[in-house]
Amino acid sequence: MTQSFRSHPAWPGETPSSSAPLRPGDLAAPHILAPEWLLLRQGAVRGHAVVVEDGCFTAVGRVADIEARYPALQTRPLPRTLLMPGMIDTHHHLTQSFGKSLVFGEPSEIFRRIWVPLEGSLKAEHLYLSSKLAALEALRGGFTTVVDAGTRSDAGLDAIARAVSDAGIRCVLGLICNDRPGADTLDAGPILRRAAAHLGQYETNRLVTPSLAISIPEVASDAMLQHVYRMCAEAGRVFQTHANEHLVAVERSLNVCGARPIEHLAAIGALGPAALLAHATLVTPREIRLLADTGTAVAYNPVASAWKGNAVAPAETMATFGVRLGLGTDGTRSDGFRLLDYAEAAQRFAFGIGVGDSSCGAGWRWVDMATHGAAAVAGLGALTGEIAQGKRADFLLVDLDVPELAPSWDLTWELVRLANRDQIRAVVVDGQLRLWDGWPVDWDARALLRDIRAMADDTIAGAPIRKLHEAADLHRARHARAGTGARA
C-alpha cells in the first residue's frame, strides 16, 4: 500500500488516503522518497525521487531511473508534497532568544543597550536553554542550519554546542575574539590560543562547525582582525563580523580609521573568501566592488533592516556584480518563508519600485540565497544546501495541498510570496527526522518552554538592560492620556 504524508483530515466529500507520518526510525533503513515536486538547484521538477542512506542523499534522479537502480527498496510516494533543501540562516544570535520582543520599537545599535547586557548576564544553564529555544524556532521555520555570530557570555560555548546538537540543527558556531572591548587593548596571546582551540574542536560532531568572530571591527585591533581572518582562512572556516550596518558605526570608523568599515577591513587584509559580513546595508559602489573582487560573502538580513536598521542592503545589485550572499534573520524571527518574502519585498520597496523593477530577483534568487547560496557563504557548500547526490540529507517536506497554492502556476515564486511555515510537515537534518508538524519527535519541547518561562522573568530582571521604547500597551496608555490633555 502506498503511503501519503498528509496529516490533516480529509476535506468534506474527499475520501481519506492512508496517512502515516515519518517517524525517527523511518529513515534508518533506505527508502525511495518520491514527492510530487523536488526542488533542485536548477528549479522545481516533477517525477523525481531521492534515496537517503547514512544521513546522505545517495541518489537523486527520475523515479524510474532510481527504481531501476534500487530494485530492493520500497518507493514511498509523497503526493501533493514538495521535498526541498532545508533553509540556512547565515546570521543568527542564538543566545538572544530570551529578549526577542524587548527590541521592538527600539532605535539602532540595540546591542549596546540590550544584547550586551543580556548576554553578559547569562550562565551556562541560560545559554543552553536560550540556544535550544532558538534552535527549535529555527527548525519550526524550515531552517536546518544556523550560523551563530558568537555570544558575549563568559560561560563558554559548550552549552550552545550541546543545545544545538540536542535540538538536532546544524550550526556554524562563532567564538568572539575581540581584544578592544573597552579603552585598553587586551593581551592577544590568550585570545588567539582560545581561538585555535575552538577551531580544533567538534571534529566528531556531525552538526557543529567552528567559526571565529569579531563583533564589529572597532572592538578589535588591526592585528587581531588580521590574525583571526588568517586563522579562519587557513583552517577552511568562516570569519564573521558585523560591518556597515548603522550610520553611526560608519561615521565612527571614518573618525577613527579614516575609512569606512569595509574599506578598513580591505586595507588590513581582513576581507576575502573566508569572510562573512553581516548586514552591509550602507555600502558605496566602491565597497560593492571590494566585496566582489575579494570574494567576501554577505549575510543579507531584510527583517533586521525593517525592524531596527538604517537601510536595506542592495542585495540584488550585489549579487548581479558577483558578491556572494546568503539570507539571515539576525535573530529577529526564525520563519524561513517569511524571510524569503521580506528579502524580495525589501528590495522592491527600497530599489525596485523607483526604477520600475517589478520582479526584483524573479523569485528564484531569494530561494537560492536561502539554500545553496547560503551554504556556500557559511562554508558548508560541500556539505549541504541542495538536494544532490553526496550532500547531507537536510530537507523539508512541504504540504502543497493548501488553498494558498491552488491553483499553482509558478512554484518557485509561490514559495517566496505565498508559502507558509504551517505547510512544513517534516524537517530532516543529517538524515534524521527532527520535527513533524512543527514539534520535535524525539525530545519534549513543551518541557523546554516550561523551563524557560520559569526563569525568564528573573533572567531579564537581573540584566542591566536599558530600553528607550516602552511596551506597546504602556505607549498606548500614555498617548491616550496625552490626547485628553494629560502630560505626554
TrEMBL record:
Q: Name one Pfam family in it.
A: Amidohydro_1
Question: Where does the record place a coiled coil?
Answer: none
Stretches the record annotates as Disordered:
1-24
InterPro entries per UniProt: Amidohydro-rel (IPR006680), Metal-dep_hydrolase_composite (IPR011059), Metal_Hydrolase (IPR032466), MTA/SAH_deaminase (IPR050287)
Q: Which SUPFAM superfamilies match?
A: Composite domain of metallo-dependent hydrolases (SSF51338), Metallo-dependent hydrolases (SSF51556)
Q: Which domain of life is it from?
A: Bacteria
Keyword Hydrolase part of the UniProt annotation = yes
All copies of the Amidohydrolase-related domain together span 83-433
UniProt GO MF annotations: hydrolase activity, acting on carbon-nitrogen (but not peptide) bonds
Q: Could you list this entry's UniProt keywords, alphabetically sorted.
A: Hydrolase
PANTHER family in alphabetical order:
AMIDOHYDROLASE-RELATED DOMAIN-CONTAINING PROTEIN (PTHR43794:SF11), AMINOHYDROLASE SSNA-RELATED (PTHR43794)
Q: Which family does it belong to?
A: Belongs to the metallo-dependent hydrolases superfamily. ATZ/TRZ family.
Name the chain's protein. Cytosine/adenosine deaminase-related metal-dependent hydrolase
Organism in which the protein naturally occurs = Cupriavidus agavae
Per the UniProt record, the lineage of the source organism begins with: Bacteria, Pseudomonadati, Pseudomonadota, Betaproteobacteria, Burkholderiales
